[in-house]
From TrEMBL:
Name this polypeptide is given: Arginine--tRNA ligase
CDD domains to which the protein is assigned, alphabetical: Anticodon_Ia_Arg (cd07956), ArgRS_core (cd00671)
Domain (DALR anticodon binding) ranges: 452-573
Self-association state and partner proteins as the record states: Monomer.
KW Protein biosynthesis (keyword) present: yes
């Protein structure tokens, strides 16, 4: 169980109610919900008790409120609800101290997943092709989910499962023979040029397409010359991919691909033949299962004997369990592949694997409207370049006007551009589609990455001007409604991180950070109307220290949350 400030008070409230009702606390805790802010922080509805007690819910609530006493909670009846509000002390100090003592680890819980392993399959581009913008969702979602699980103490085995086997490599090979420059075989951009030309020609000339298929058949047959050339293409691609991942701050525990399972599929097919069984269908080999009406069968081998994605994914799932003995195995792949994964997981279960239920398809929706300002569809690296360049103009303007001081304007532009693209994706619920808009993602206002980075830079600047974060402070002085509202937003991060892990939903963290930044903005702007409400208040050192401590806890919360999302946190903007 989480040991966050919120969870401790929630558990204490549940225990107090349970004692008064004479039932186990476990029966009560699930019924405690967040209260309407005007009425408290926690709420327990008494409607389910009315029949047994033969009383009206408001009367039950009134009686319970009088009989339940929990240190640190103000408990009152509000109609049929028993509501609890966190008393200003020790609650305020507990939240601020929890954030400040944890630092960038705030929101996590190293004990939550101790001894557990999660395998996360994400990004997964095809070699000899660029990482396209359509890879943004699997890459950023997978990276963020991996960060969240690490923060919760899980051992994470992140796998970049490359598409490195199939006819497309035959296309690159025969295309290279026609259009390639041997001196540029280590140049990723050149391989992409070759692939585009070869693919276009194969669509127009069946004979050229047949040559590509023949090359791939040589690969599957273990032809040494074909495999040597394929391996050169693969290494060139991985080298190019790593440069892009480094730019995004992403590292994988494992970079491997479909080729890992070449030569191992027959053993998997033999297992399936025993249970649940296989059969031929129109010359292809399929899993022998009952299928729903119009449901395509699970293909294991095509008519020409070549294997398919399902065969390789089944082999990969078995291999991953043998290597990692995972508690969860996540596949961060587009919603379009939902049927594929349902069938793969179903086959694993029918094969008798008890761990099949630990496999999860973390599906996501599509992005619409993505193009550069010039109009063409682009590669992910091109999108990052364009974001950086557009931000760079703003950074330069602010530096020249004296509104910004930075030792490295180019680095700052890169950090802000990356934040714009990453947060522009992660703020959306993963299952939903969304439309990409350059003006929206690059804005320093509204629900954007640059807005959150600016909020973080603002609190860093306040602390700098205030002489730094205080070692000690008096939390009882933080009585403004805006201060208490900000404390409550800071409190939420550990619970939100836990929920994000359970739901595989990074947008929960993104939305919480927006709430923190909004509460900070309301607090910060108080001083514009009333000097006595400024954070750096003159003539009252104790109040100044308390407000700076709250500001420091806000800084930590923003930095910790942005780090989980994979977003840089510059100190100046």
């Amino acid at each position: 169980m989480s040991n966050s400030v919120y969870s401790r008070y929630r558990a204490a409230f549940a225990q107090g109610l349970a004692t008064a009702l004479g039932v186990p606390a476990s029966e009560i805790e699930a019924q405690i919900k967040p209260a309407e802010p005007a009425h408290g922080d926690l709420s327990f509805a008494t409607f389910p008790l009315a029949k047994a007690q033969k009383k009206a819910p408001p009367a039950i609530a009134a009686g319970l409120a009088q009989s339940v006493s929990v240190p640190g909670l103000d408990i009152k009846a509000v109609g049929p609800y028993v509501n609890a509000r966190f008393a200003p002390l020790p609650f305020t100090a507990e939240v601020i101290d929890a954030a400040r003592s944890a630092g960038l680890a705030y929101g996590g819980d190293a004990d939550a997943g101790r001894g557990k392993t999660v395998v996360i399959d994400y990004s997964s581009p095809n070699i000899a092709k660029p990482i396209g913008f359509h890879h943004i969702r699997t890459t950023f979602l997978g990276h963020c989910i991996a960060n969240i699980y690490r923060a919760l103490g899980w051992k994470v085995e992140g796998i970049n499962y490359l598409g490195d086997w199939g006819k497309q490599f035959g296309l690159v090979a025969v295309g290279f023979q026609e259009y390639g420059d041997p001196a540029r075989i280590d140049d990723m951009a050149h391989l992409v040029e070759v692939y585009v030309k070869a693919n276009k020609r194969a669509e127009a000339e069946p004979e050229f397409d047949a040559k590509a298929r023949e090359f791939f058949r040589r690969m599957e047959a273990g032809d040494a010359e074909a495999l040597k050339l394929w391996n050169q293409f693969r290494e060139t691609s991985i080298k190019g991919f790593k440069l892009i991942y480094k730019r995004m701050g992403i590292e994988f525990e494992h970079i491997e691909g479909e080729s890992r399972y070449q030569g191992k599929m027959d053993a998997v097919i033999d297992q399936i033949a025993k249970k649940p069984g296989v059969k031929e269908s129109e010359g292809a080999l399929i899993v022998d299962l009952p299928y729903a009406e119009n449901e395509p069968p699970i293909l294991l081998k095509k008519k020409d004997g070549s294997t398919l994605y399902a065969t390789r994914d089944l082999a990969a799932a078995e291999d991953r369990y043998e290597r990692f003995h995972f508690d969860k195995s996540l596949y961060v792949v587009a919603q379009d592949q939902a049927l594929h994964f349902r069938q793969v997981f179903r086959t694993l279960k029918e094969m008798g694997h008890p761990w099949a239920d630990r496999t999860v398809h973390v599906a996501f929706g599509r992005i619409h409207g993505m193009s550069t300002r010039k109009g063409q569809v682009v590669q992910l690296n091109d999108v990052l370049d364009e974001a950086r360049d557009l931000v760079s103009a703003k950074v330069t303007e602010n530096v020249e006007a004296g509104r910004l001081q930075t030792a490295n304007a180019a680095q700052l532009a890169e950090q802000i551009g990356l934040a714009a693209i990453v947060f522009g994706d992660l703020k959306h619920k993963r299952a939903s589609d969304y439309t990409f808009d350059w003006d929206e993602v690059l804005s320093f206002e509204g629900h954007t990455g640059p807005y959150l980075q600016y909020a973080h830079a603002r609190v860093v600047n306040v602390l700098r001007k205030g002489g730094g974060a205080p070692a000690s402070y008096d939390a009882s002085l933080l009585t403004l409604p805006e201060e208490q509202a900000l404390v409550r937003e800071i409190m939420r991060l550990p619970e939100v991180v836990r929920d994000a892990a359970e739901q595989y939903e990074p947008s929960l963290v993104a939305r919480l950070l927006l709430d923190v930044a909004a509460a900070l903005s309301r607090y910060y702007t108080l001083g514009n109307q009333d000097r006595e409400k400024r954070i750096i208040i003159d003539g009252n050192d104790a109040l100044r220290a308390a407000r700076l401590a709250l500001t420091d806890a806000t800084r930590v919360t923003l930095a910790a949350g942005l780090t989980l999302l994979g977003i840089p946190t510059p100190d100046n903007m």
